[in-house]
Fold this sequence. Notes:
220 residues
Amino acid sequence: MGNDVRMERRRRADSFGAQDRTDADLIAAARAGDALSLTTLFRRHDPKLRSFVHGLMNTSRDLDDVMQDVYLKAFRSLDSYRGEAGIATWLHRIAYNAVVDAGRRRPQHDVHDDEALNREPQKGSLIDEQATARLDASSALAKLSSQQRAALLMIDGHGFSYRDVAAVLGISEGTVGAHLIRGRAAFKSALNGSSSQTSERGASRPPDLKDPQKKESGHD
């Protein structure tokens, strides 16, 4: 029993220590076979990655499966990471490609959160106004291309740079700018169309692109 207690205390101490280490330190330790460092790295980036993947897929269906695929691919790609881009950017590139692959396997009509869209909000409630705003955002995002959606989510939602998004999408920064401009215009147009159809429910504040699932975002 005493040995078990000491091992648990040591494990907790190691865990707290890992949380204070930089991404570069964690990935170096993970390459050396330290599973705790890899887990800490993934947990650190999970909120923004999950938000990004959810926004790209525009549905919570299969979200956990895709996230599992993201982390499996990241684990298998540890040795290929060379540091040309930040670790957050590297993980977002893996996530984007995983979503694209998943999209090829999904029916083409599955482009929004069906559960949210099939639930008619009730009138007069702040919660229902927020639900309506999320529904409108989901419908608007569904009208964008995957690259427009990625640019909008990463730059407007999470504060990434054009250079980061270019690395994720494998395109030039100028093309990122073009996707962002067109995506913003299409998103705004779709939102305005949704707002005009639901104006009798009362005005609601613009939906927040930062996190459809109410998790913290931001990146190092």
